[in-house]
């Protein structure tokens, strides 16, 4: 009691200090989404399921969050955190570096967050050791990796872990740099700098990362150099990262080393069928090592005598341009050796630039779990993409440079639409960068990481991003003439085939691999993989073109609007499933259907070569946001549409094993994966908003928690987190349209800082301290003081100059809306 009174008093004090921002970072749980459904394991493996074989199978069944945990700034280049390896290989999802149980292999400077598939990054590493004597072999992480004792501590800007060898590691991150503090037990202290370290794939294979050489030089307590890496899920070309590291205490000994590269690598020089050898040390004073033409592994070991110090601190900077820049980042961004200084700066920046953009009451009247869900979600949706402005090694155009759009397929619905509102500067900058990538590399990315486009899972979804920004009026310094040309490239030019092992039939690097079908047939046929999901995605992509064409090339509007109706050509009115008629159906290029024995509840694995990607045709049949009018009609009218929606929320309706993307969900509705994000809200199109509120809340409550297993599956660069934020705000954006659906907020009062410095205030009459105590069903809405009879509004109503949305809620579900249903601006009947 006393303690909380004091805290409250301090808070009140803080509020009274002008310009001081409330510390929202205290509500962030940086571990939310760190594991799959079974405690302690990044992926699902229930002990009751017994055998390893079964575990291996289950590894693919339920994805963990794969989140990054460590020190980072909003949109930062550096994400400083531990890399781990789960000894039980079958359990691991290493993509963010951190796993709940894995042994620590290093602390490294760059990570992705929430991505699935093969890992990318986990590079520019240090590893503290108490011995490097045999059996330790510094070329073999299995001989020195460390289990952790106790629980890790993770806060905004701060991470701490204790290793079994007695070393405590504390970490904080700045924009292109970080600081690591090692507290050693008595005895000799070593820090291994392994330039060849990267996050491996647990299963090996085609998309594993590779180390392709580098260089390291030592000068006293400083080291500099670079490493070149390639591969990873996006099948990226090699890229080079320069580094500059420094220790606060001069080492007693510092030696470079070199050893043969035995990693399995296709198409690169390696010694991969040999056992891991021993490192050769350069003699003290030689100070420099290069990999040479055989991609040898290189690194350095810094050693402190037992008497020297008990604590070693290290600052490390990274740059894509030069070691000098990396040193400058280190010096400018981590000015002091006090870890807390970097932590405080990070907390301040997260509060100022991210967390305070959405303010809700934080007093006793609020359910504290909901505070954690809101602010943690905000945190996770700002870890990516990475702002690499000034750090583009490929060209120098004066435009901003961003990377780690990983991927737009995941983020185009909920993440970018929120960035637009609360991060207008960063968002404009991102769009300029997307267009600049087209200028210099021919296509905007769908995914991009390590300065390389890839992979494209469905359509060219940068089109949706640009259209969403355009229709909502974003102009700034964006060259929309070029923006439209970049979109047109996606719509008109088939990218060359990259013959990826994921899918050898067409490019998965960029653009639209199945464009030939799309242009010639008006749908994607069975000649191409993913014909169902690509057909619906290309439809929305072309709608996106029509949106930007309206301002930039009016003569093209009708053409792309026509093309946006292509999904109707893949709609077979006669196919039935579970007593429903009309589904997206695979079609041959001659126009005939492959409907015999067709079950739209199955997709053949929902993989790259399946008929639909990471979702079944049942699910994709709901994803036509630009023409809901025709969709409802095709599904048999409003009553049938409603019945079909009701059905997909019933347990045990899913027939398809969606592997990692299913998150153990048994309903056809799968909130763990992005194609279904809007589906629970589609009741708004029937003016039955209360059902949207009910279904979407139920999903949020069932699958999102303040827990390690806090999101249903991979968080996908924050995509799942941003879905939850919209849910909590009581709004849902219909991307490519200036339209937001009204739902029901989770807080009584929300101030959102939009468009730079305008405020949108959302209030709700409900008592939100206890979930649902007074109900959350909307009874009436006022926008800017006017009674509102529609369950949606336009961007300009409140999102440009700010405004108010007032919800009155209650326990009874009510059809409160009588106005027009949300629009179908792409309505077009073939
Ligand atoms: C892997 O997990 C299985 C099942 O829990 C267990 O029996 C086995 O000992 C573990 N192996 C290792 C190397 O940890
Ligand atoms: C680390 O812990 C795992 C169990 O989680 C155990 O199998 C392994 O032997 C431990 N490794 C070391 C080096 O102690
Ligand atoms: C660690 O060693 C294992 C086994 O050799 C290897 O697969 C992995 O790539 C190594 N590196 C890391 C960072 O785990
Ligand atoms: C090594 O560092 C010292 C002190 O920072 C500096 O004066 C010197 O130029 C450096 N030597 C090299 C070869 O970079
Ligand atoms: C929202 O802003 C209004 C007007 O400034 C203020 O009265 C209210 O307390 C704010 N609410 C929150 C939760 O910050
Ligand atoms: C847009 O870029 C093109 C060249 O790519 C240039 O010709 C044009 O002037 C630019 N438009 C604006 C408004 O800057
Ligand atoms: C669009 O489709 C309509 C009707 O199918 C057709 O008459 C018209 O020529 C098409 N327009 C363009 C630009 O393709
Ligand atoms: C099938 O749907 C019709 C309405 O289209 C309904 O009347 C009938 O009861 C349904 N049958 C079953 C078995 O659900
Ligand atoms: C046609 O559909 C059947 C049944 O769904 C399936 O087994 C077959 O592989 C399909 N044919 C092609 C060419 O996709
Ligand atoms: C779903 O299926 C499982 C396994 O067959 C069964 O245990 C469970 O009771 C079913 N749930 C419902 C709601 O039908
Ligand atoms: C905030 O508004 C003021 C006055 O309208 C304007 O001058 C200023 O540039 C705005 N700041 C931002 C960050 O948009
Ligand atoms: C707070 O919210 C969580 C989930 O949102 C819920 O499980 C919990 O019951 C709520 N607590 C109270 C006291 O209502």
From TrEMBL:
<dbReference type="GO" id="GO:0030246">
    <property type="term" value="F:carbohydrate binding"/>
</dbReference>
<feature type="domain" description="Glycosyl hydrolase family 92 N-terminal">
    <location>
        <begin position="27"/>
        <end position="319"/>
    </location>
</feature>
<dbReference type="InterPro" id="IPR005887">
    <property type="entry name" value="GH92_a_mannosidase_put"/>
</dbReference>
<dbReference type="GO" id="GO:0005829">
    <property type="term" value="C:cytosol"/>
</dbReference>
<dbReference type="GO" id="GO:0005634">
    <property type="term" value="C:nucleus"/>
</dbReference>
<protein>
    <recommendedName>
        <fullName>Glycoside hydrolase family 92 protein</fullName>
    </recommendedName>
</protein>
<dbReference type="InterPro" id="IPR041371">
    <property type="entry name" value="GH92_N"/>
</dbReference>
<keyword id="KW-0732">Signal</keyword>
<dbReference type="InterPro" id="IPR012939">
    <property type="entry name" value="Glyco_hydro_92"/>
</dbReference>
<dbReference type="GO" id="GO:0005975">
    <property type="term" value="P:carbohydrate metabolic process"/>
</dbReference>
<dbReference type="GO" id="GO:0006516">
    <property type="term" value="P:glycoprotein catabolic process"/>
</dbReference>
<dbReference type="InterPro" id="IPR050883">
    <property type="entry name" value="PNGase"/>
</dbReference>
<feature type="domain" description="Glycosyl hydrolase family 92">
    <location>
        <begin position="325"/>
        <end position="810"/>
    </location>
</feature>
<dbReference type="Pfam" id="PF07971">
    <property type="entry name" value="Glyco_hydro_92"/>
</dbReference>
<dbReference type="Pfam" id="PF17678">
    <property type="entry name" value="Glyco_hydro_92N"/>
</dbReference>
<feature type="signal peptide">
    <location>
        <begin position="1"/>
        <end position="19"/>
    </location>
</feature>
<dbReference type="InterPro" id="IPR014718">
    <property type="entry name" value="GH-type_carb-bd"/>
</dbReference>
<dbReference type="InterPro" id="IPR008928">
    <property type="entry name" value="6-hairpin_glycosidase_sf"/>
</dbReference>
<dbReference type="GO" id="GO:0000224">
    <property type="term" value="F:peptide-N4-(N-acetyl-beta-glucosaminyl)asparagine amidase activity"/>
</dbReference>
């Amino acid at each position: 009691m006393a303690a909380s009174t004091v805290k409250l008093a301090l808070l009140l004090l803080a509020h009274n200090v002008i310009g001081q921002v409330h510390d929202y970072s205290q509500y962030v749980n940086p571990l939310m989404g760190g594991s799959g459904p079974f405690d302690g394991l990044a992926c699902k493996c229930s002990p009751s399921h017994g055998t390893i074989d079964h575990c291996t199978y289950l590894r693919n069944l339920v994805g963990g969050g794969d989140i990054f945990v460590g020190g980072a700034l909003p949109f930062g280049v550096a994400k400083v955190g531990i890399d781990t390896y789960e000894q039980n290989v079958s359990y691991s999802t290493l993509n963010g570096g951190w796993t709940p149980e894995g042994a620590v292999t290093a602390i490294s400077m760059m990570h992705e967050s929430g991505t699935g598939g093969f890992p990318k990054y986990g590079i520019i590493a240090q590893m503290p050791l108490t011995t490097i004597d045999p059996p330790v072999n510094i070329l073999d992480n299995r001989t020195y990796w460390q289990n952790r004792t106790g629980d890790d501590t993770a806060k905004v800007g701060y991470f701490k872990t204790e290793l079994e060898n007695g070393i405590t590691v504390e970490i904080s991150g700045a924009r292109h740099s970080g600081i690591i503090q090692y507290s050693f037990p008595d005895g000799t202290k070593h820090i291994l700098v392994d330039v060849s370290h990267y996050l491996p794939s647990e299963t090996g294979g085609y998309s594993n990362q590779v180390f392709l050489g580098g260089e390291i030089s030592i000068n006293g307590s400083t080291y500099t150099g670079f490493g070149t890496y390639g591969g990873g899920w996006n099948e990226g070309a090699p890229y080079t990262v320069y580094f500059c590291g420094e220790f606060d205490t001069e080492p007693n000994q510092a030696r470079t080393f070199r050893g043969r590269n035995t990693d399995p690598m296709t198409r690169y020089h390696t010694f991969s069928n040999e056992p891991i050898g021993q490192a050769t040390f350069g003699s003290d004073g030689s100070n420099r090592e290069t990999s040479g033409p055989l991609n040898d592994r290189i690194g350095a070991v810094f050693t402190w005598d037992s008497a020297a110090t008990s604590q070693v601190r290290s600052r490390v900077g990274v740059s894509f341009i030069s070691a000098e820049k990396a040193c400058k980042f280190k010096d400018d961004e981590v000015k002091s050796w006090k870890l807390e200084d970097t932590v405080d700066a990070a907390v301040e920046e997260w509060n100022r630039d991210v967390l305070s953009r959405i303010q809700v009451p934080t007093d006793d009247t609020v359910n504290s779990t909901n505070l954690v869900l809101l602010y943690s979600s905000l945190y996770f949706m700002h870890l990516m993409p990475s702002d690499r402005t000034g750090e583009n090694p490929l060209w120098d155009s004066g435009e901003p440079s961003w990377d780690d759009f990983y991927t737009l397929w995941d983020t185009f619905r909920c993440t970018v639409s929120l960035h637009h509102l609360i991060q207008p500067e960063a968002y404009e900058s991102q769009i300029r960068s997307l267009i600049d990538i087209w200028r210099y590399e021919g296509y905007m990315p769908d995914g991009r990481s390590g300065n390389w486009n890839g992979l494209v899972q469905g359509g060219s979804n940068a089109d949706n991003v640009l259209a969403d920004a355009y229709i909502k009026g974003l102009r700034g310094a964006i060259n929309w003439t070029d923006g439209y040309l970049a979109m047109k490239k996606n719509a008109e030019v088939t990218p060359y085939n990259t013959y990826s092992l994921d899918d050898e039939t067409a490019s998965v690097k960029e653009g639209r691999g199945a464009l030939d079908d799309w242009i010639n047939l008006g749908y994607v046929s069975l000649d191409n993989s993913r014909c169902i999901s690509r057909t619906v995605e290309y439809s929305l992509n072309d709608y996106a073109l029509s949106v930007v064409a309206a301002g930039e090339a009016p003569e093209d509007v009708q053409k792309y609007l026509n093309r946006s109706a292509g999904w109707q050509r893949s709609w077979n009115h006669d196919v039935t499933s579970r007593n429903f008629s009309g589904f997206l159906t695979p079609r041959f290029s001659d126009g005939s259907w492959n409907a015999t024995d067709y079950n739209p509840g199955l997709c053949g694995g929902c993989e790259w070569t399946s008929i639909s990607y990471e979702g079944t045709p049942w699910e994709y049949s709901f994803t036509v946001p630009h023409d809901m009018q025709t969709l409802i009609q095709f599904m048999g009218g409003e009553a049938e549409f409603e019945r079909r929606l009701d059905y997909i929320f019933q347990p045990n309706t899913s027939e398809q094993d969606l592997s990692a993307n299913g998150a153990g969900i048994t309903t056809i509705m799968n909130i763990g994966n992005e194609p279904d994000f809007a589906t629970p809200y589609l009741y708004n199109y029937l003016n039955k908003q209360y059902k949207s509120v009910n279904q979407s809340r139920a999903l949020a409550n069932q699958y999102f928690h303040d827990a390690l297993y806090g999101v249903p599956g991979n968080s996908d660069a924050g995509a799942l987190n941003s879905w939850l934020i919209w849910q909590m705000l009581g709004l849902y954006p219909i991307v490519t349209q200036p339209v937001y659906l009204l739902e029901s907020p989770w807080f009584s009062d929300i101030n959102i800082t939009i468009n730079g410095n305008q405020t949108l205030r959302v209030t709700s009459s409900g008592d939100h301290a206890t979930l649902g105590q007074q109900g959350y069903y909307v009874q009436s809405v006022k926008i800017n003081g006017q009674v509102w009879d529609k369950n949606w509004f336009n961007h300009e109503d409140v999102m440009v100059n700010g405004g108010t949305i007032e919800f009155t809620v209650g326990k009874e579900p009510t059809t409160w809306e009588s106005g027009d249903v949300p629009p179908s601006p792409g309505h077009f009947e073939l």
